[in-house]
Write a structure and sequence with these properties.
Blueprint (H helix, E strand, L loop, with lengths): L4 E4 L9 H16 L3 E6 L9 H14 L5 E4 L4 H13 L3 E4 L3 H13 L15 H9 L5 E4 L5 E6 L3 E6 L7 E3 L7 H11 L4 E5 L3 H15 L6 E5 L19 H6 L4 H10 L12 H7 L14 H14 L2 H8 L5 H7 L6 H10 L13 H11 L9 H15 L3 H13 L7 H4 L5 H15 L1
Parallel strand pairs: 1-2, 2-3, 9-10
Antiparallel strand pairs: 4-5, 5-8, 6-7
Length: 453
């Protein structure tokens, strides 16, 4: 079995959405399947956009998903290390200072595009003499740092998309530090991955260009060939074909959690969406990890369908054993009660609602109740000797009420059901009558008859 070390490194600049969750889930399942270690890293070097509320939300989402990590740290605690590496690379002549403003850089990009050329940085800063650089520094002209890419083609065996190559001449020397001293993601990530001994980096296909530049940085910093394995899977898109964005609040996990989703619905869907494998309904993470296959991912962007997620959620909750649900949600309902209402459950909010409805002392607040039907049912039900009705006993009781009132079907069942449960959508009334005690049912009927009088 392969030993590996992977990482999930969210940036606390927004809430965690379904696309971020997919990255975390793919890395975690790959790690779990291959007897590896999982690093959870907070990429918070962007001090202006990083917020504690986002970080707290991400931590809650990670906990809710059930992701356990072996190590954790934040990039903001490693600024001295990034400065140290920058100084080493500077002495080797592998980085250089630039002095252009953002407006000047934008002008250069537009000029290159008008000429039909790729908007690649022209390395004008490398033509500056030491005297010119000193004069700019004395004049306090803002400067920033770029990494000098070697003029070569970077090749790697991508574990998802196969053999991949990218000519570094097609991209600009990456900016690694801003004029305010803030380090950029690509630079910090490379140093962290090397220092943390990361073996595999699994992420979206939008990072392929980053990977080419980062491999060059890895080799420059380590002084040897890059040994990290990369895998790039296709990006999720919504039903309209647009990519998910945390800045747009696209399906953030907090909203899904508040909507009563079981996290395993997200796990099952995201572990297989965009692969050649069927979507299953595992309720055990170990079983899903065994089913997971990183090589099964395709290159086309799969569409994320919320209807599919909610349908999968319904199946998972309905097939989850009662004892697990009881522990997770602190349910008061009995196993028999759960077996009756199970097929009316679509999410955890439904289950919590039913737990309240089935609790002793609950009185539904009903208006416009058909008192005649309810009174007739109560009069006949009071003659029952057993504290709990059997299925046959409930069926016979309803038949007797129908004969007495000469009312059938929904006109008979709905008033009784509403008076007892306060719901229109419920299991068959004959089944529901078996899971509440005689005293409980009569108390509810009396209260609603009195309220409607």
């Amino acid at each position: 079995m392969l030993n590996c070390k992977v990482r999930f490194a969210p940036s606390p600049t927004g809430y965690m959405h379904i696309g971020n969750a997919r990255v975390a889930i793919i890395n975690y399942l790959f790690c779990k399947k291959n007897n590896g270690k999982f690093l959870f890293r907070i990429d918070d070097t962007d001090s202006q956009r990083s917020k504690k509320e986002y970080e707290d939300a991400i931590l809650n989402d990670i906990k809710w998903l059930g992701i356990e990590y072996d190590e954790t740290f934040r990039q903001s605690a490693r600024l001295d290390r990034y400065n140290e590496v920058l100084e080493i690379l500077n002495k080797k002549g592998l980085v250089y200072k630039c002095f252009e403003t953002e407006e000047e850089l934008e002008f250069k990009r537009k000029r290159a595009l008008l000429k039909g050329q790729p908007p690649v940085y022209d390395r004008e800063a490398l033509t500056l003499t030491q005297s010119q650089i000193e004069d700019m520094e004395i004049s306090s002209i803002p400067s920033y740092w770029r990494f000098k890419l070697p003029n070569k083609v970077v090749r790697w065996d991508d574990i998802v998309i196969g053999n991949t190559s990218y000519a570094l001449s097609n991209i600009s020397d990456p900016v690694i530090a801003k004029s305010d001293g803030t380090f950029l993601y690509s630079f910090c990530s490379v140093i962290d991955d090397l220092d943390s001994c990361i073996t595999h980096v699994l992420r979206g296909q939008d990072h392929v260009t980053n990977t080419a530049a980062q491999i060059a940085m890895i080799e420059a910093i380590s002084g040897k060939q890059c040994n990290i394995k990369f895998g790039h899977f296709s990006l999720l898109v919504n039903k309209d074909g647009a990519q998910f964005s945390k800045r747009l609040g696209s399906l953030n996990l907090g909203k899904l959690r508040d909507g009563g989703l079981d996290p395993m619905a997200i796990w099952n869907l995201l572990a297989t969406l965009g692969t050649s494998k069927d979507i299953e309904t595992f309720i055990d993470l170990d079983e899903l990890a065994n089913y997971f296959d990183i090589s099964s991912f395709g290159t086309n962007s799969p569409k994320f369908d919320t209807d599919l997620l909610f349908n999968l959620n319904k199946k998972i909750i309905r097939c989850t054993p009662y004892e697990r649900l009881k522990t997770r949600l602190s349910l008061k309902m009995s196993e028999q009660q759960h077996s009756v209402i199970r097929d009316n459950i679509y999410n955890y909010n439904d289950l919590k609602k039913w737990d309240k409805i089935l609790s002793p002392g609950y009185i539904p607040n009903i208006h416009n109740l058909n008192i005649g039907v309810v009174k007739s049912f109560k009069e006949l039900f009071e003659k029952e000797r057993n504290e709990f009705l059997s299925r046959d006993g409930a069926t016979n009781l309803l038949k007797a009420v129908s004969e007495k009132t000469e009312i059938k079907g929904k006109d008979l069942y709905m008033p009784i059901q509403n008076a007892i449960l306060g719901l229109e959508n419920a299991p068959r009334l004959a089944d529901t009558l078996t899971i509440l005690s005689k005293n409980e049912i009569l108390t509810r009927l009396s209260a609603n008859i009195l309220a409607s009088s």
